[in-house]
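How it folds
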Amino acid sequence: MNWSSVANNQTFSFNTLQNAVTNGYFTAKTAIPASSRIVNVQSAQDYVYIQPIAKPTNQLVVKSDMVAVSGTPTWYGGFVSDSGQYQTVINSTTGYLWDSSDFGASWTPNTGAGALGWLSISISGNGVYRVATTVSDTIYVSINSGANWSVAFTAPSTVNAIGTAITDNGETMYVTLSGDYVRKSTNYGTSFSSITTLGQQGWNFPSVASAGQYVLIPYGNGLKRSTDYGATWFSAGSSLSYITSAMSDSGQYQITAATIGGDISVSSNYGSSFASISTGSVTNKYFYSSAMYASGEFMLIADNSISNPIDNGWVWRSSDFGASFNKITSLGQAAWEGVGFGGQYALAVAPTAVYRSTNYGNSWTQVL
């Protein structure tokens, strides 16, 4: 990314921010967490000094001389195919993907894929087709179950590659770029085109129904939804900053959450409206990752913030189609980096451990 101009509505990972630090673009306030967690410009100001400049009216310039921090998170992600058979997590210490093809029972490092700074990965139902973003803003596609990856395209130097979504058959893929257009492929990742009608926004992590009819894309000022395979788009939710999203196979049930100070929002009518679901105090909550069972009956959403020892740092679970959520106390508190759902199988990823459930999130066992 070119840090000479950063739009106010852009988002980027802490790791990308640290790379800019290493290259001397920032002045430090405090240590940047070593994490692939996505933050916006406003949140970045907690870690670096950001000074407005006179060039385009909504642009910023930032500089820093910070040093690398200790305590680098080991695990990140939690990417699961619709059946649950194929699962992937990221080892952010080595940079390699770790893959499972037996519903999360066993795991092996995918060294052949390389240490590419993986960020977001989506996997088709049969595990064959995969799309991924990286912290270098290069987008990769695999058509052989992740054994090999090829470059699909590289994001412009002034934006960041963020999230991915894929239909169950792998034919349609979405890639979000913060500060640029959302990209879409309808040929298994062979080529991508820009969805210009959506405009250039601080796009975050998208989700898509199994057959592709319904799409939800959170961004720095709300939500965008489609009910016709991405042909036309409508606004949804409120004018808050949203990062995560997930939906049921049919698209009827959808989940998202505002980044800071917001609570969980659930739709049971294909995204037409969202209801706020209380999880107690929302102070400093950072709902960063969400996942959903095929029917929508079970949902998971993870809080990445542990600033409040009572209310923060939990994975929350719903077993009633999003009508209510409860903390999964057996998992304990952590700066949760990701959750995933496929079939009856679920993943919950903390910086120091990966947990697996084989019964819709009722009970959990550490696997990494």
